């Protein structure tokens, strides 16, 4: 009898470690949130309450796990909690920033804000940012006109002609390095270039375009290069087999196939440089008038205008700065969205 | 080359077949080569023009360097200290967060969450730097004042670290605030690269670790991190490069001074090279401009070096993976 009992106890020795119930994270989460809410009711700040809830969760769940599951599982649960909270922490500033810009900026937007410039011809004329919107669009357009041909052709060289030779490798490497050029250095370059040619105190929109294109070219090259490499070699070989010269294969077969991706890359590159401030500060200057001529005189852009209003610092200037920031963010987001839509429309048909 | 057997129906088709390697090809490949070379020329041009314009800036008479310095070295060293302090604060905050988010996207989150998360982080990159500056200066700085006070009260008395947390600024426009704004700005690039290398970990390695009984974190530590190590290092370097050259956030957030101290909460701190250029360029005196361009040259070489190392590390590891 006693031996049988011994056997039965041995049989019941568990082969798996004890585990927390599946709902353990949820239970701990609810407790932590409840604790945070309690502290909120008791007069703690919102930030403090949230931080408290997160800390309680990060401490409690691993401790519970340590008691039942052992050290390794506890570490696992701790790291999972930390990794997820890293994401939460990163979202906070984004939400705060977007909320700030929308709540402060959207109210300032009206018809006159978008259609008048800073330049007053009458005393009681409303103030607007028309001149800055025009400046932003023209300078970015100039930068696009410079960067797109250079960027796309350079990518064509890298993928179609240079395949793996030393020059192509060097260019690929330097394009990567070029993506890290500080924007202010690009501005200084345009400044040094144009003042050496046209004399000191030279400002113009086209200088800004040159500076921006220095930042834009590497992005365009990278995007185009990746897209061209995705074009299947069978397409090229089929074209060659029909006797098509290489350049015509590239223009008629390869580039149209990759068009969607290339356009997406270009749009994203535009959205990246349209918010640049520092280079334009140096070379494009600032003015209160609407300037339509890229090649003559100072040109205000939205980011430079925001910076200028920030420097002034009084209440009306702050309102204008938030309004302009709102417009700028809307433009950037629309470009980002457009990039996705363009990519979908021009995506090569399958089958 | 034989003539096409059937006469082509239109002229262009005939020329397609018969003029292989003709003028069109030569012109087109020439244009492509030219575009490629123009990139090399642009990079060289940046260096050459900055050097031409800035070389005299290294050796100006003492009064040009302003009231706080007498030589170029004296002028640029505080700026370098400011640049590096802000960047290092940014890295300390951004790197763990970025690695965490990258892990969420590549390994922790189910796919339907991972895609929106990646998109949200990309949105962070799309916000223009001047908007970050505006937000940092008008909003974040004020919000961080209590945190400054707390840091000063609790960490100030500690012997060595205490020097970092001296008397806090009442306005909150400190190096620490600038570093936090910088951290948010460099977060997306570090996340994007590490996410890429994390997701390239061979599936078999991960499954082998799990099959041996590893928890998910142990799997990440034993297969993902070793595989991605060089990618992580270079992502940090690229983030550093971005932080070193970022202008507007520091320009708009920091209240500038020239007192060299270790206090990251001080009312006035040395600014960064980039911010200094943006602040001073308006005094268009030729001498000072030369000095500013010279500091810009220093910044260019610095970021070039950092980026060069980062890319070199990536390139080396890719070659190792390929073998």
UniProtKB/TrEMBL annotation, chain A:
Gene3D superfamilies recorded: MetI-like
Family: Belongs to the binding-protein-dependent transport system permease family. CysTW subfamily.
One example of a Gene Ontology biological process annotation: phosphate ion transmembrane transport
Superkingdom of origin: Bacteria
GO molecular function: phosphate transmembrane transporter activity
Subcellular location(s) of the protein: Cell membrane
Chief place where the protein resides: membrane
PROSITE patterns reported in the protein's UniProt record: ABC_TM1 (PS50928)
Protein task: Part of the binding-protein-dependent transport system for phosphate; probably responsible for the translocation of the substrate across the membrane.
Signal peptide segment: none
Protein name from the UniProt record: Phosphate transport system permease protein PstA
InterPro entries named in the record: MetI-like (IPR000515), MetI-like_sf (IPR035906), Phosphate_PstA (IPR005672), Phosphate_transprt_permease (IPR051408)
Organism name: Nocardioides simplex
UniProtKB/TrEMBL annotation, chain B:
SUPFAM superfamilies associated with the record: MetI-like (SSF161098)
Main location: membrane
Protein's GO biological process: phosphate ion transport
GO molecular function, one term: phosphate transmembrane transporter activity
Membrane topology: Multi-pass membrane protein
Signal sequence, start to end: none
GO annotation, cellular component aspect: plasma membrane
Protein name: Phosphate transport system permease protein
InterPro entries membership: MetI-like (IPR000515), MetI-like_sf (IPR035906), Phosphate_PstC (IPR011864), Phosphate_Transport_Permease (IPR051124)
Summary of the function given for this chain in its UniProt record: Part of the binding-protein-dependent transport system for phosphate; probably responsible for the translocation of the substrate across the membrane.
Gene3D superfamilies: MetI-like
Family: Belongs to the binding-protein-dependent transport system permease family. CysTW subfamily.
Compartment(s): Cell membrane
CDD domains: TM_PBP2
Key words of the record: Cell membrane, Membrane, Phosphate transport, Transmembrane, Transmembrane helix, Transport
Gene: pstC
């Amino acid at each position: 009898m006693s031996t049988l009992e011994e056997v039965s106890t041995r049989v019941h020795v568990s082969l798996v470690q004890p585990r927390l119930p599946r709902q353990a994270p949820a239970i701990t989460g609810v407790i932590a949130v409840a604790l945070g809410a309690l502290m909120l009711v008791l007069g703690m700040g919102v930030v403090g309450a949230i931080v408290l809830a997160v800390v309680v969760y990060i401490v409690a769940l691993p401790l519970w796990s340590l008691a039942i599951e052992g050290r390794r599982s506890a570490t696992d649960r701790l790291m999972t909690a930390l990794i997820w909270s890293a994401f939460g922490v990163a979202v906070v500033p984004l939400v705060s920033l977007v909320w700030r810009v929308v709540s402060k900026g959207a109210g300032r937007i009206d018809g006159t804000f978008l259609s008048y410039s800073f330049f007053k011809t009458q005393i009681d004329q409303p103030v607007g940012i028309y001149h800055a919107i025009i400046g932003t669009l023209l300078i970015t357009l100039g930068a696009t006109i410079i960067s797109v041909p250079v960027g796309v052709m350079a990518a064509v060289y890298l993928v179609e002609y240079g395949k793996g030779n030393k020059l192509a490798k060097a260019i690929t490497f330097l394009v990567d390095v070029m993506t890290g050029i500080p924007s202010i250095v690009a501005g200084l370059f345009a400044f040094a270039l144009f003042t050496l040619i046209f004399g000191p105190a030279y400002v113009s929109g086209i200088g800004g375009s040159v500076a921006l294109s220095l930042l834009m070219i590497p992005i365009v090259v990278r995007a185009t290069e990746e897209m061209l490499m995705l074009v299947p070699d069978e397409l090229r070989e089929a074209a060659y087999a029909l006797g098509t010269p290489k350049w015509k294969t590239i223009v008629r077969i390869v580039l149209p196939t990759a068009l969607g991706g290339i356009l997406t890359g270009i749009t994203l590159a535009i959205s990246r440089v349209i918010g640049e401030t520092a280079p334009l500060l140096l070379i494009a200057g600032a003015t209160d008038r609407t300037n339509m001529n890229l090649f003559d005189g100072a040109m205000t852009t939205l980011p430079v205008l925001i910076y200028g209003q920030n420097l002034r610092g009084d209440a009306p200037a702050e309102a204008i700065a938030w309004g302009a920031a709102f417009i700028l963010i809307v433009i950037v987001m629309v470009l980002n969205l457009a990039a996705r839509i363009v990519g979908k429309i021009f995506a090569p048909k399958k089958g | 080359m034989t003539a096409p057997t059937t006469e082509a129906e239109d002229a262009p088709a005939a020329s397609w077949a018969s003029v292989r390697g003709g003028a069109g090809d030569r012109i087109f490949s020439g244009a492509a080569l030219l575009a490629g070379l123009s990139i090399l020329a642009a990079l060289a041009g940046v260096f050459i023009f900055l050097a031409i314009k800035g070389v005299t800036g290294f050796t100006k008479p003492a009064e040009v360097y302003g009231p706080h310095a007498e030589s170029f070295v004296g002028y640029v060293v505080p700026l370098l200290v400011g640049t590096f302090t802000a960047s290092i604060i940014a890295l300390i905050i951004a790197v763990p967060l970025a690695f965490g988010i990258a892990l969420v996207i590549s390994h922790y989150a189910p796919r339907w969450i991972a895609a929106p998360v990646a998109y949200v982080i990309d949105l962070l990159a799309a916000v223009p730097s001047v908007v970050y500056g505006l937000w940092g200066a008008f909003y974040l700085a004020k919000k961080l004042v209590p945190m400054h006070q707390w840091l000063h009260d609790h960490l100030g008395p500690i012997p060595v670290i205490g020097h970092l947390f001296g008397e806090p600024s009442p306005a909150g426009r400190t190096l620490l605030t600038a570093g936090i704004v910088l951290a948010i700005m460099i977060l997306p690039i570090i996340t994007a690269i590490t996410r890429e290398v994390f997701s390239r970990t061979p599936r078999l390695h991960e499954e082998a670790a799990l099959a041996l009984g590893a928890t998910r974190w142990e799997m990440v530590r034993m297969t993902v991190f070793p595989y991605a190590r060089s990618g992580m290092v270079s992502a940090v370097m690229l983030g550093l490069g971005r932080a070193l050259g970022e202008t507007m956030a520091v320009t708009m957030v920091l209240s500038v001074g020239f007192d060299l101290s270790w206090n990251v909460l001080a009312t006035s701190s040395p600014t960064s090279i980039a911010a200094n250029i943006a602040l001073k360029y308006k005094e268009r005196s030729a001498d000072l401009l030369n000095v500013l361009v010279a500091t810009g040259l220093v910044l260019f070489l610095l970021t070039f070096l950092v980026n060069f190392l980062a890319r070199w590390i990536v390139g080396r590891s890719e070659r190792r993976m390929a073998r």
